[in-house]
Design goal:
By secondary structure, this protein is of the alpha+beta class. It has a domain of 266 residues: Rossmann fold, CATH 3.40.50.300. The protein has a 10-stranded mixed sheet with strand order 13-12-21-20-19-14-18-17-15-16. Strands 1-5-7-6 form a 4-stranded antiparallel sheet, with helices on one face. It has a 4-stranded antiparallel sheet with strand order 8-9-11-10, with helices on one face. The protein is elongated and about 120 Å long. Bound molecules: adenosine-5'-diphosphate and magnesium ion. Adenosine-5'-diphosphate binds next to helix 5 and strand 21.
Length: 563
């Protein structure tokens, strides 16, 4: 019995005959080619014994790993007639003859085998890994890692596309637990099974609220990145912030059933953009508008489009007209995109948040009544028609903003309740909303199809997250324009925290009257300028004429730009 040959170097002796010339590359190559078919690549000539006609080739072994190390291995000489196909038989008989040892290398051509003492864990891992790789256990070497995982050698037959699925299963089910993962180095022919916790989410991730925020600068790409939450990491990776990159696309859509976290997510978006000095508008139904009371005082004049459907339309129309004005200004400056304007001379972001678009868009049913119907019925009918007229104006303005006002610094954020068959958003609008998020831990397949452009590319919420109520709150998946879809959990803060933060940053506060569309503006939008009262009141000045946070850089920039 001899100890295993020197670790890490493999040598083979080849009968090459006495005509072999070690200094002739053609001779050496011929032998190497033959060796490669049986033993693989990587050998080089180490010596030649002319008296015996034997050449010795060696290679640095990357298959002999720790399971051969130390005094726990022995080299066994095999009988002359041992064949490659005798492996199984040999493995059994050696294990019998040497209790506690396993055959870890089988090389009938060299008439040797190596047997090693392996722990039960390594035996189990070796069986599972070799099975996943479709090789015999002695064709791979397996060693325990200090972290409880395993390192192993990869056979030349390893193909990621063919074997990775099975290896993953070995890691997360057969020898490890969910969360354990596999790393392979195809060139180094090594792999590892690494223990890790399953990535999940904490109950809450607090929205970052830095003490200082630079005013929005359209030449600074970082300013376009809205921190919206935390992405679910790949195994072994750390949680990272999920940013909505408004540079990749201006407009976003968030779908989800009631209570899935749409408003919470939108709040993070509103707070960040207000903190950067954006002009903000909120359009919502009166019934749901309480959700946004917290930011009402920070809105741009006329930006509170929540008190009636007429106000919703009036706010949307104000944005549309401001967009058209900006378009003309851009043209005069000889540019097509506001991002190309020089630093310090640009448009402030003008942001429109439409929550619960489904409810805002749903048309009233108009009662059918006879010509001579009583006054009361006529009034009901007219009311429904007036509501629907306002809804049409609103839809038209939103559609126009989404489709045509991308390059003037206007940003749309639209949330919709998502019903089983529709999102409330028609295809024309949908295609203009670049970022698509679906909130809720248990979306139906159909909901995913409705919201995402390529739902198969968007990861599912993993079962362990879905079933954990604390982790699952506020979870969703996002298909962002220009970035990889991820599972994420949105940031959370109370609305009081957001409000205090914005005040501490000096974001301008306004009265209810200032942020509500004026009667005159509403009348103008609805073509009713013959109203006797208030008809001469000026429309709310377009948001661009309002300074941003008092004394802020944005305000100064704005003053400088004002034409
Ligand atoms: N990201 C989150 N982190 C923690 N809790 C959340 C999160 N998102 C939502 N929630 C919880 O779920 C509730 C419902 O969320 P909300 O945004 O109002 O849903 P939606 O607007 O879709 O109806 C919130 O009041 C909050 O308690
Ligand atoms: Mg809501």
């Amino acid at each position: 019995m001899t100890k295993a040959a020197s670790m890490g170097i493999e040598r083979i002796r080849v009968n090459v005959g006495s005509k072999f010339r070690p200094d002739k590359p053609a001779h050496v190559d011929k032998v190497l080619t033959k060796i490669a078919t049986e033993h693989g690549e990587g050998f080089e000539l180490d010596g030649y014994e002319p008296s015996e006609g034997v050449a010795i080739f060696k290679r640095e072994s990357n298959t002999l790993v720790a399971s051969h190390a130390g005094n726990d291995s022995m080299e066994i000489r095999l009988p002359q007639d041992t064949k490659q196909s005798d492996g199984k038989k040999r493995a059994v008989s050696l294990a019998d003859t040497y209790p506690g040892y396993q055959m870890t290398t089988f090389e009938p051509h060299r008439r040797r085998a190596i047997i090693s003492k392996l722990t039960d864990e390594v035996i189990r891992a070796r069986d599972a890994i070799s099975n996943a790789l479709s090789v015999d256990p002695w064709n791979i070497q397996v060693a325990e890692r200090t972290d409880g995982g395993f390192d192993f050698s990869l056979p030349p037959t390893y193909r990621p596309s063919k074997h990775d699925g099975a290896l993953e299963e070995v890691a997360s089910v057969i020898i490890g637990e969910p969360g354990w993962y596999v790393e392979t180095d195809t060139h180094g022919r090594r792999g590892s099974i690494i223990p890790a916790e399953l990535a999940t989410f904490d109950a809450v991730y607090k929205t970052p609220m830095p003490k200082k925020m630079e005013s929005f600068d359209h030449t600074n790409k970082d300013h376009f990145k809205v921190p919206m939450g935390v992405a679910l990491p790949e195994p072994g990776q750390r949680h990272q912030t999920m940013n909505l990159d408004l540079d990749a696309h201006n407009h976003s859509q968030i779908g989800g059933t009631s209570g899935s976290g749409k408003t919470v997510t939108i709040n993070a978006y509103i707070a960040y953009l207000l903190a950067r000095g954006a002009d903000m508008c909120v359009i919502d139904t009166p019934a749901k508008s309480a959700d946004f009371m917290w930011c009402k005082e920070f809105l741009t004049p006329g930006g509170w489009g929540c008190d009636s459907i007429r106000h919703s339309a009036a706010t949307a129309e104000m944005v549309r007209q401001e967009g058209q004005r900006r378009g003309k200004e851009l043209k005069r400056a000889g540019e097509v995109n506001f991002k190309d304007l020089p630093k310090g001379k640009g448009f402030k972001p003008l942001v429109v948040v439409v929550d619960e678009l489904t409810a805002l868009y749903a048309m009233d049913s108009v009662p059918k009544i006879p010509k001579d119907a009583p006054q009361k019925q006529i009034e009901l009918k007219e009311k429904a028609e007036a509501t629907n007229f306002a809804k049409s104006l609103l839809k038209d303005a939103i559609k126009n903003i989404a489709a045509e006002l991308r390059f003037v610094g206007i940003f749309l954020m639209i949330s919709t309740q998502i019903a089983s068959t529709n999102t409330g958003i028609d295809t024309a609008l949908r295609t203009n909303l670049g970022h698509k998020a679906l909130l809720g831990a248990k979306p139906t397949e159909n909901n995913r199809k409705l919201v995402f452009s390529d739902h198969e590319a968007v990861p599912m919420i993993p079962p362990h997250v879905r079933e954990d109520t604390a982790a699952a709150k506020g979870v969703g998946a996002i298909e962002p324009e220009g970035a990889t879809p991820v599972v994420f959990k949105s940031f959370f803060r109370t609305t009081h925290e957001y409000r205090d933060w914005l005040i501490s940053l000096g974001v301008a506060q306004r009265t209810d009257a200032a942020v509500t569309p004026t009667p005159a503006w509403v009348a103008e939008v609805f073509g009713e300028d013959d109203l006797d009262d208030g008809a001469d009141e000026p429309a709310p000045s377009a948001p661009n004429h309002q300074p941003g946070p008092a004394g802020s850089k944005a305000a100064e920039q704005w003053d400088a730009l004002a034409l």
